[in-house]
Protein 1
Amino acid sequence: MGAEAFIATCRQLGELDFSPDVARRALAAAEEELPVRYAMPFPPGPSPVFERGGRDMHNRRGQLHELVQHLTDLAYLTPSRFRQWHEWRQNGEGELSPVLLDAVLSAVGQFVSEDDYAPFGQVDQFPAADRTARLDWTERTLAILVHRAAALTSFDAELSPRPSYRIGERTAYGRSLAFRIRLYFHDFVDRRTDARKVYFDADLVPFLHTLDNSLGDPFHQWLPRREDHHLHPGLQALLLDARIVFEKFRERHRFLPDRRQPYFLVYDLDRPADRGADFLDRLSRRAGKKVAKNAFHQDTGNNRLGVRLLQLCLWRAGFYTGTLDGLFGRMSHDALLALIQQEREAGGTLKEHQLNRVCLPAGEGEDRLWVVDLRLAGMLLDAYMPPDEATANREEELIWDRIRREGKEAALDDQLAHRREEFKGPYGELHKYPDRRVYYGLRGLIRGAFRAIGRVVGWITGVVDDLLGAVFDFVKSVVKRIQEGIGCFLAGFRYFAHYLLGRPFVSLGQAVEGRHPVLLTKFVIDFDVVSFLDTSASGADRRAHTAYLKRMAEGVAFFLGTTVDIIRLVSKLTGTVGWLRLGILIARWVRAWLRGVPRSAAIA
Amino acid sequence: MSENKTFGDLINDMSSLDVVTLTGNLTVQVNDVEVASNGNDDGDRPLRFSRIMRELEGRIMKRDSQLSALAATHVSLDKDTVSFVRENLSTDEAIYLNFHNESVKAAGIARAAMADGIAKLLIGNKK
């Protein structure tokens, strides 16, 4: 079945044609074709993602890895558990230890109980006990969980400040604020303990004063005093949006894009310059004189914060995949060079002679340092700042237009799943370096890919090997889209199949002499319900089947509504649409809806 | 709209809810009803629903079928409810009634969502 046949089937469902033939095609599409196309299993019941081999489940697994990273950052999981998770991942994702599995599931339960995100209130409650039921719940709501947790750890202003927030409140939002303070100040430097500040509370307020001071005291009037219970929304916004921090740092040190005054950061790295042209040597000597004249030091608060902000920006732009520790080592350095190189090819922001001055070695021998002109680097990075949602959608369209114009859409459809292996390198050995982080901000990823579409097309055709930067951003944005959109659709389609297409709910009871009693319930479109119970089914079997029906009934309105909306959306598509493009369009609707846009508006 | 059913038929059908609970003998060996999603005999093994259904339907059709209706409940749109329960239930069979009653509750919740889903599809159709 091609994407167009799937669209035609959705059109028939949209016309209320639930005849056996249409139902058969719809089930085949959702349960067989889509899982293969999108490398994402259709959830047949509790609970395949954790317990199976996972060969054809890259996307769901990827989503789980993302969720575990976010839950660790929000301190629902300890760094030790995060390390164990990566060891399991590194060892081929075989059977997950019950202890680790329970820790992850408990973290999910605690997260949901502490957060007031509206969709969590619309699905059935997270099961109080029973590992199987918890797994099933986690898998069904995975796309929603990841979306929300990603927003809580994003530095792209994915969340709005909360005027009612009280310092010390034990909520997911309180954890989110604490995470940001930890990241700006100390969390990933020489960590030898799992002990962390979990919630933002009075103990962390002094760090806000320090941050404000580093930025030139622009938020003085908003800083909380000892007796205050509320945190000014302006300060919350500062923590939620790294762009504001960078802007204020820029203002404080007056290296604004429209001025000529440079601002230098220095870092120590034993690495020779890649190019030795005369003019670069001259620039390097000049930089060395400046360093000597101005006595730049690495160990000043300003240099440390500047380096950390640069590293954070490179991470968000898809060039840096290391630890956010403010230590500018080899990976950070290479990320900066990759940015310069990509911009050299993309053109636009800086002229060649400016690009040459962004990062230079200075001094000789043991005194050698690297000098970054943060005014120039910041101008480059400004082009990678996440745009608003509408702009991101438009840029995404332009990326796909370009790929279509080049005649590469079909090739990409076929290649993407196979070429995922190429990206293992940039992710690194996470079990050895568990404090490394992968950036998941979608709008930033789209912007990064858009910034150098030529590289993306070159990668599809096999002439570009450089992964960091635009290519990395593009693949991650596509995969993330697919995970979110198709994940939601498949989770909901399970309900659609059961309630509108007549797929029976089947439970197998405990085996007696190798044979399992069958318990079965079938809902029919005209609301008739037939249940069948084998007479050898035990009380426990019946209770399990009843609990299964009850659980599914509690979530039915939410999931069925989502899937029906997606089917309506797909049924309206016209023209040639490939599988990936279809996945992106579904995902765009899902994202709008997860962000709180009413369903009808998201469809329009 | 399906050729087999008019929209009027569908509306009429949807105006009531019938819940039937059957008991009988149907056990399976898991190997019989599992299938690898990739067509090979390894990897993932979702249950093969169609085979279970075929077996069940085959037994219903047999003259000497051991299947029997334990209870049936009819709920009309105005919530009037009529229930049928087989006479002379044994103690073992009586405990199935709880299951049946739970099914009626679940069906009631599902009906609202199903109707809502159909209505949404219908609205999209009219736009």
Protein 2
Amino acid sequence: MTKILRSILIALLISSSPALAKTKGEVWRYEGPRIGIDISRFLLPVMTTANRTGWELQADIPYKGNLFPTFETGMQWFDDKHDAFQYKNSGAYGRLGVDMSIVKFESLKDHDFMFVGFRYGYAIFNQQTDSIKSSNYWGSRITSLDRHPMSAHWGELVFGMKGELLPNFFFGWSLRAKFPLVVTNDQNIKPYIIPGLGKTGNGTPFDFSITVSYRFPIFKTKTIPKPISIGGAKHPGLNEDTDPNSQDFGGSGGGGGYNRGR
Amino acid sequence: MRIGLISFLLLVITFVSCTDVNRCYDSVDTLMISSFSVSGFKNITSMRIKGLNHNDVGGILFTDSTSSLTKRAPLPLSLSADSTGFIFTVNGKIDTLFVRHKMIISFISEYCGFAPAYTLSGYRRSKGIDSVRITDAKVNSQSIVKTTNDQNIKIYFNSATH
């Protein structure tokens, strides 16, 4: 196991070396799938009063340079002990979506970007509540609610930034507004926290992520991705961009200035 | 761009950390809102309500010695039995009412916890009670905010015996 991890680390460091990129004195723009981990999930135990732990992996791949189809998956364990009840909930989740860069890349080496995006999220989880204490004029009672399988669907709007702090190593954050769509009905308790969705108590849940990721530089190009233009018809008479570097980036047909491998 | 990455990150963490409000603002008392009248528009001059088998001084749920056509009282229901018994002393006469109900424990919020929620399903009354009308069978933590003319149950006492 140690040998495998060491080999992976060496491979990552070698592939990240800027020296390789300067072979033959050429400057290339390297792209490829990016895999990361959301380190904010490890901050949750110190940021919340309840015992909330989990992990999350994120992956994206560039499409036409400015679009990043994204997949995120993770698990969460939640144990919230109050004076009058103890609520437990655990499960797994996944999110699918797309991020879109809203800034112009300034050079072939520039990979820093600000983005907006959306996600569709789905979680399967279990919840149970123990030691529910009730009392009134007639006496006291302690009850429990059995473990109940649940699921949830939601949507997210995402805004964030990512920057290449070291070659192929990215650091980024995102702020997310989440919109619960469908949650399994439980007549006793509506879950107040859902893995991947977060707290559901008041209005729109907001969440954030802090991602450290690594890009596998398996594609190279000499094209700087053009900013995505939204809407608006082309006006006849206006010159088309004749820059030879303005070829599509990874589009259908193989993408002109796009080379595979290093 | 790098400075933006770090500064916005700090801003985001601060914002998210400050949004966790841990106070209970909701009602967790589940009380059956009951109104009382004597048939034939006769005044109720005195009224006292106790729970069945609660004979100690602290067992009095409601007492009122002012004269009026109707009285209104919030009454707790049993947490463990499927019916609750009340003893009414109205204008010096004693009557008994049993209310049947089903109960579930219902979640209010993270910081308020749970409260019982009942569905009234029937009643049994002594002869001094003319009639009983269940006007809203759902008794939950929101029942307490019912307006003056709204209630869960209406109880009419017999004018001949009161």
